[in-house]
């Protein structure tokens, strides 16, 4: 594990210094990343392979892309910034928020996508709408270390929150997150987060997930979450 992590780190360091929007060293390095420009902002889909992805992550990605072919599964794209419509939806609930300041609103981005390739959160989520469940493939990079050599529990909690959230839709907020950390996750390893919607009760969505190793032999964590659909009649600030 250490050797592959070191090899991964070497390729990560080779990529350091490249900033979002800067010209690519070689397009061959990132064949699958889609780039398109709108209003001078580059919207990059981050849920696609890059050179920092380990063999395990690429293999699982390919397996799930195959499952998408008959339409039962879909890959969820992932952007640093929410779409204009999504942003507007949330803004209506947080009228007093600091994000009303236009300059801050423009700078704000999803923090899991704020790292350079391979250093932080590398993940992709696949959704099965009929079964109301998602599978998140996650590789936690070296900047997410907690105890030496291990993934920080907060980083895991973040991914669990995102994975559970991916089973919801529309404007929702996490009200409760309950995590049992059963085994430590080695840094740079790949884990699989299986999430599902267990119950819908009015505006309350009850969800659960487990986090396992690629070979499914190790159960790293189990979690439940309560998400609340925001009420348009209420402002939360
Ligand atoms: C979309 C595409 C995106 C793809 C992924 C991108 C990733 C995005 C990011 C990923 C994710 C990032 C996500 C984040 O980071 S979200 C950020 C972290 N979360 C928050 O900051 C939430 C703060 N809390 C609130 O704003 C309010 O409390 C909310 C909005 C949640 C509810 O306030 P609201 O005034 O609307 O509702 P209510 O108080 O009338 O309650 C309604 C019902 O719910 C029940 N209840 C409430 N709380 C709890 C509780 N703790 N345990 C048990 N029950 C609870 C309550 O009893 C009642 O039940 P009932 O009496 O009706 O039976």
Automatic annotation (TrEMBL):
Keywords: Apoptosis, Cell membrane, Cell projection, Cytoplasm, Fatty acid metabolism, Hydrolase, Lipid metabolism, Membrane, Mitochondrion, Mitochondrion inner membrane, Transit peptide. Coiled coil: none annotated. It is an enzyme of class 3 (hydrolase). It is a peripheral membrane protein. Its EC number is 3.1.2.2. Residues 149-218 form the Thioesterase domain. It catalyses: decanoyl-CoA + H2O = decanoate + CoA + H(+); (9Z)-octadecenoyl-CoA + H2O = (9Z)-octadecenoate + CoA + H(+); hexadecanoyl-CoA + H2O = hexadecanoate + CoA + H(+); dodecanoyl-CoA + H2O = dodecanoate + CoA + H(+). This is Acyl-coenzyme A thioesterase THEM4. It comes from Bos taurus (Bovine).
